Amino acid sequence: MSNGITIRDIKVFVTAPHGINLVVVKVETSEPELFGYGCATFTWRHKAVVTAIEEYLAPMLKGRNAENIEDLWQTMKGSSYWRNGPVLNNAISGVDEALWDIKGKMAGMPLYSLFGGKSREGIPVYRHADANSIEKVEEQILAYMDEGYRYIRCHMGTYGGNFDGSRQIIQKPEGAPEGAYFHPKMYMRSVVELFDRIRTDIGWELEIMHDVHERLPLADTLAFAKELEPFKLFFLEDCLPPDQGSYFKYLREQTCVPLAMGELFTNSVEWKTIIQNQWIDFIRVHLSDIGGLTPAKKLAAFCEAYGVRTAWHGPNDLSPIGMAAQMHLDLHVHNFGIQEFAGFNDAEMEVFPGCPKIRQGYAYLNDRPGIGVDFNEEAAKKYPPVKMDHSWMFSRITDGTAVRP
Ligand code: GCO
Ligand code: MG
């Protein structure tokens, strides 16, 4: 293909086939049949991302050479003077991933091949077990194990462990606002009990993990990590909020639980020190929140030098395009750890033909050039944007104080 392929147009779509608003970016080029798709899903502020792309990035990028991804990424990054943050990074990611999709199509190669080839044939993924009682969590685990999964993140009553009102003593002051209240100590106790039972009832073959979702005070987090040591977790996730990263030093020195961190990171200053000091074991950024494949490739290489493995964030608020994009890195990078996977429903598979397939606990990508996942614009219209339920994010502890969700 000749040089000098330029960006003709950039379009943004919002669709909710899973009841969650997903933001998809299409970059069209001067070659009529050559275009790419990227993920720009910041579901909680999707309109702000759409505006950032339509009003700022698209006018700036039209007519530019689509082949120089690095230069375009740096240009987008600097173009607002003040930078970083989930809105701007997601906007950049949508374009960046679409440019990589185009690059792969030009090369006639799936991205993993363009990156340097496979380090493994399939991608082990972990699923979530979460219910209101230990018995029900165990039922879910066994069902996943029957399907071939060997890595399961285990929760009871989601983040904060609000699984059963009768077991949690939620006392709050008069006039305390409504919210998703939880009791940190009861939450900690319940998870220790859960993991004790899982190891007794299900055994040791299963790799288990847990997400603290940055809900505990610093010293409680350390105590919690130490209490979980006997159950040999694959990792304990998001123990601390990003702005308390320096406390990882104490976690690392005082507990042997493997530590995973990073889905809230949006700025390289948040990860540099904790990686260089080897205070964490797994980096799990949300690719679109750091600006897409271009910075993620560099981050993975940076982590490799320090023995930190990847565990990219893979929740439902990520489009199948974004999931496949990061799975190309999963296949390629040497220092891959695990991939979170929340599952696709039928509507998502209809809107996004070419979704990764799961067999016996492993994800497999198709071998189409680029990211390999298409976007059916007509089908997407059947699932228009929805009003999202934010209520779980208004979390509070028993004295009535608002805490991070
Ligand atoms: C995870 C995450 C998610 C987030 C969600 C926020 O580890 O999968 O913590 O469940 O809560 O992406 O919108
Ligand atoms: Mg998490």
List keywords for this structure.
single chain; 405 residues; alpha/beta; ten-stranded mixed beta sheet; three-stranded antiparallel beta sheet; 14 helices; 16% strand; binds D-gluconic acid; binds magnesium ion
Topology of this structure?
Blueprint: E1 7-15, E2 22-29, E3 35-39, H1 46-61, H2 69-78, H3 86-107, H4 111-115, E4 123-131, H5 134-146, E5 151-156, E6 180-182, H6 184-201, E7 207-211, H7 218-228, E8 235-237, H8 248-254, E9 259-261, H9 268-276, E10 282-283, H10 287-290, H11 293-305, E11 309-310, H12 320-332, E12 339-340, H13 346-351, E13 357-359, E14 362-364, H14 377-381, E15 395-397
Parallel strand pairs: 4-5, 4-12, 5-7, 6-15, 7-8, 8-9, 9-10, 10-11
Antiparallel strand pairs: 1-2, 2-3, 4-14, 13-14
This protein binds D-gluconic acid (GCO) and magnesium ion.
In short:
With 405 residues, the protein is an alpha/beta fold.
- Outline the low-pLDDT stretches: none
Q: Which hetero ligands occur in this complex?
A: D-gluconic acid, magnesium ion
What is the chains' assembly state?
A: single chain
Overall helicity: 25-40%
Which whole number gives the mean pLDDT? 96
Structural class designation: alpha/beta
Count of individual helical segments = 14
Gyration radius, in Å: 21 Å
Q: Report the count of strand segments.
A: 15
Order of helices and strands: EEEHHHHEHEEHEHEHEHEHHEHEHEEHE
Structure, described:
By secondary structure, this protein is α/β, with parallel strands linked by helices. The protein is built from 14 helices and 15 strands. The chain has helices at residues 46-61, 69-78, 86-107, 111-115, 134-146, 184-201, 218-228, 248-254, 268-276, 287-290, 293-305, 320-332, 346-351, 377-381; strands at residues 7-15, 22-29, 35-39, 123-131, 151-156, 180-182, 207-211, 235-237, 259-261, 282-283, 309-310, 339-340, 357-359, 362-364, 395-397. The strands form 3 sheets. Strands 4, 5, 7, 8, 9, 10, 11, 12, 13 and 14 form a 10-stranded mixed beta sheet that branches. β13 and β14 (362-364) form a beta hairpin. The longest helix has 22 residues, at 86-107. The chain is globular, with a radius of gyration of 21 Å. It starts with 6 loop residues before the first strand and ends in an 8-residue tail after the last strand. The mean pLDDT is 96. Magnesium ion binds at residues 211, 213, 237-238, 263.
